[in-house]
Amino acid sequence: MSLLMAFLVGGGLCLIGQLVMDLTKPGVSPGHILVGYITIGALLSAFGLYQPLVDIGGAGATVPLSGFGHSLAQGAIKEVAEKGWLGAFTGGISATAGGITAAIVFGYLAAVLFDPKD
């Protein structure tokens, strides 16, 4: 059942982004979707509204860009509680450092191992 819920939540998030790009004129770019999803994920997380989605959808809610925003917000909230207001600047980065590092390493490996086609 958890696989189905992850598929439905993650697919729903992707569907919303695709519909926004397709139905807006002159068209919202993928960059707008990226920034919007991260911002919305962080805001929903700050108000405690994203965690229930994570509880229902698991990886379907944490893997998309809104999940990255959720991780940033939760890291900042945790660090503010532990270290004060300086944690607002450091917490998000330390909470997402593993994912950022993986994206850089795997992106580099893909660039080295594969040749782009026209």
Walk me through this protein's architecture.
By secondary structure, the chain is an all-alpha fold. The protein has one domain (2-113). It contains six helices and no strands. Helix 5 (65-83) packs antiparallel against helix 6 (87-113). The protein starts with a helix and ends in a 5-residue tail after the last helix.
Characterize this entry briefly.
The chain is built from 6 helices and no strands.
Beta percentage is under 5%
Assembly classification = single chain
| Tally of helical runs | 6
Number of individual domains = 1
- Overall shape: it is globular
Radius of gyration: 16 Å
- Kindly report the average pLDDT value: 91
Distance between the termini: 41 Å
Uncertain segments are none
Structural class: mainly alpha
E-strand count: 0
Main pleated sheet: none
> What helical percentage do the residues reach?
over 70%
Order of helices and strands: HHHHHH
State the main characteristics.
6 helices; single chain; mainly alpha; 118 residues; 81% helix
